[in-house]
Amino acid sequence: MNKLLLSAVAALALASSPVLAQPTDILNASYDIARELFEAENAAYAATGATVTINQSHAGSSAQARAVLEGLQADVVTFNQVTDIQKLVEGGYVSEDWTSEFPNNAAPFYSFPSFLVRSGNPKAIKDWGDLAAEGVQVIFPNPKTSGNGRYTYLAARAWATEEYAGDEAKIEEFLTKLFANVPVFETGGRAATTAFTERQLGDVLVTFEAETLAVVKQLGADKYEAVVPSVSFLSEFPVAIVDKVVDARGSRDLAKAYLDFLFTPEGQEVAAANFHRPQDEAVAAAHAATFPEIRLVTVEDAFGGWDKVAAEHFADGGLLDRVFVNQ
């Protein structure tokens, strides 16, 4: 076969191959309380001249991970815990080196479990120990379905570990009382907020600081107060490209550009304005008055890392199951 014929065959094969049309939209699967945050981020991103349409899906972070594994065509995920993205890595949807694809281990902003009480703080709730007191009803989402709920469990356990000098029996006694004080476990953070603010359940809501400050702003300081405990758990909100989806859709460049924006000063400003603590030092300094100082423990220092947490605390029959009396 001569070169001319080979070229003709190659051209014919190329012409007959399906050409992947460049998509004009992407889907961001995100955690439950981030609706307002990403509405603002998407508007700010559009203001840069980006013409891509950003569609949103919101639910508990763990529930979203399962949805992607079951077929939700999310181009990017913006979750609230590393373990949920790791599930996508294990399922072959996200690259193993996803934490190196963006700054700060792919976490553009962070928060921590904090308290929201009703005006006047009638039960005088100031710290984690108060949540286990008799007669106190606590609202927070189910740790089985919500990253928000898992962070609450880890923050409470970290406090108890310090308070009881590592005595596991006393730690479990405290956590069992705390879980017994929860009248209903909602599946996600926003449902827990609704239970507390609209259905008027409970004496205290435990959720991310980003949510407590937003509620005070939206519903009024005359109705609710944000309470910062003595110590809490660093809650980084990681992001990742869903490789399996973007490679099929041809949307990798769109997905990368969108997530890159979250780390820019403009994206960080939007996060801070929506009460998510920014990683950018200049933006953080500009919003210092909004965010009170707090001592935050990390998963590495308090629990030996996420792999150890997953195996010891969140696996079936793990330490969480031993205190989760309200399943």
Write structural notes for this entry:
This protein is of the alpha/beta class and 327 residues long. It folds into two domains: 20-110 and 236-286, D-Maltodextrin-Binding Protein, domain 2 (3-Layer(aba) Sandwich); 113-233 and 294-323, D-Maltodextrin-Binding Protein, domain 2 (3-Layer(aba) Sandwich), CATH 3.40.190.10. Helix content is 46%, strand content 15%. It contains 16 helices and 13 strands. The strands form four sheets. Strands 2-1-3-11 form a four-stranded mixed β-sheet. A four-stranded mixed β-sheet has the order 6-7-5-8. Helix 2 packs antiparallel against helix 12 (265-273) and helix 3 packs parallel to helix 4. The chain is globular.
